[in-house]
Sequence to fold (99 residues):
Amino acid sequence: FFFQFFQMTAEVEGGSEVYVGLSEGEKRFTAELEFVQALANPSYLIYLAENDFFKDERFINYLHYLQYWKTPDYNKYIKCDVLLHVAFSKSITLVVHPL
Fold:
């Protein structure tokens, strides 16, 4: 659900050229990578919180699914500041596993 939502959002916002010529697997990889990188943006996290995404069980399940990005095979593709990456990991951990 959220992969489709994020892909549609990218297409509406003019990002569809990113997906031209890609297989479905490559489209999914690209969309999920972009989403994971977006989660390192504090403003985006605030937007998600203010719009109750963190109360949506489907969204929380999607965050659980995205945990594979923390493995070395995938996190090498993440292009964001190291401190933001650490903040992302801590933020997601708190959302997925509240205190």
Observations:
- The CA atoms of residues 36 and 49 lie 16 Å apart.
